[in-house]
Every structure is written in C-alpha cells, then in structure tokens.
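Person: I keep going back and forth on a fold encoding question. Show me how you would write down a chain together with its backbone fold. Please set it down just below, with no commentary around it:
Helper:
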Amino acid sequence: MAFAKPGTNIDLQSSKIFGVSHVVAVVTGGGMMELYNTGPGKIIPKKDEIKKLVDGISNEEPNGIQLLVNNAGIARDYATEFAGNPAPDFQDPRAISEHFWKSDPVSWQQNFTTNCMGGYFMSIAFLPLLARGCDVIPGYSSSVVNVTSNSAFLKNTTRGHISYGASKAAFVHLSRMLAHLFSQTKVRVNMIAPGTFPTEMTAGGSGPDQKSKLTRAVTNAVGRAGHEIDMAATILFLAGRGGTFYTAQTLFPDGGETLVEAASV
C-alpha cells in the first residue's frame, strides 16, 4: 500500500488516514499474551518465552511489523476494592489505615509485573522488528501503543484499586521513557488511557459471546461507559497514517472522567 504525496486530495481520504491494511500488528492481552494469528492467546510469563515469540514472528514477517499494542492489564486489589469491601470513613484516619493496610504485597507484585514490567520487555524485545517495519511503507513509521488507564491520572483510589492505579501510573512514565529511548530509531510510542469500559476486569466476567455488561453507575461527563467503537476509533487513529505525527502522547477515551474527577492531566 503506497501513500499519496502529502497535500494531495487523495491523501485526505478517510481510508488513507485511518486505513491499517498495511499494518502487521502484535497485540497482547490477558497477562503477557500472544494474539498473533492464533485467535485466543497463550500466556507468556517469561523473558525466554517472549524471545521465542519474537523469533517466531520474525521468521513469519521478515520485513518486520508496524504495530505493537501492549494491552495486558489486571487488577488484583481484592482486599481493598470497594466492590467487595465497604469503603472506609474517609474522615477517620484509623478506618483509612485499617482498610488499606489489608493490601496484599503479592497483589502489588502481580499488578506491576503485568501492567508495567510486561510492557517493558515486550517493547524492548520487539524493537528491532518494529524498526525494520518502518522501512516498508514510505511516509509511515512503526509504533508501540501502550494501553494504560485513566486511573494513572486520577487522584482518588479508583474504588479501592490503589496498587492498580499505581502500576498504571508507572506504565505511563515508562512509556514516556521508551518514547525517548526509541526516538532515534523512528519507532514511536504512544499511550491510550481509557476510562470505564465493560470488560471482564470491570464487570467481573463475560458471556458466551465474550461480551461484558457493566451494571454499576459510571461517573464521567458523557454519562455512559465506553463502547467498542470508542477504543476502535482511538487505536485506528494511532495505528493509521493519521497518527504518524504523534509520539509520547496520551489519548483519553474516558468520557471526560478526568474532567469531572480530580486528576493530574
């Protein structure tokens, strides 16, 4: 797929701006998971397994890849989340201390391993393939898209998920570091920080159709949870040619939650 010269009318067609037919992508999710041409993925928890994944895809894609989406995410704050534990009296120092003292160090390790460290090793391992993919299509550069969370920017505990929010905030800063580290290779790094979407993590499960239903109220300016199209539009923008001028940036498909809640954006 060749792009028209910048400034021509054909260059402004939606298929040229948002089209991704030229993109070879690797998407992770559900831990450090492979979803490359396999449908449901498999867990890849170790560095040597990531290396095997990279080597396998390198053999299948000798011209490299154009997109890596680090979409893995877990929330293991079972002892402090307000869904299963009544929130403490926030005017009572002892109540706050007793509630959040229940936080499990193992949960912190699990959250940071998946939500931050996993994205680091995937990005580092796939960098040569991403760089190789930059040269395939004139005017297009490969990128990493790290799916963080608006929890990384909210000042509250996101309903008791305190280590989850901290791990996502760490991933945001890591992404900025990676963007700078990769800047001379032409590989870009951007972030998506979604708000509340109906997922297995937020809804507690899914149906036979792999769809989740969210029953709790959502607090944002739009007044609803996110839809599939909201995430699809965001990733298509970043993955298509329209996003090639973006690096080290964060997009917030969160319905304005970071607008109506206390946040650092």
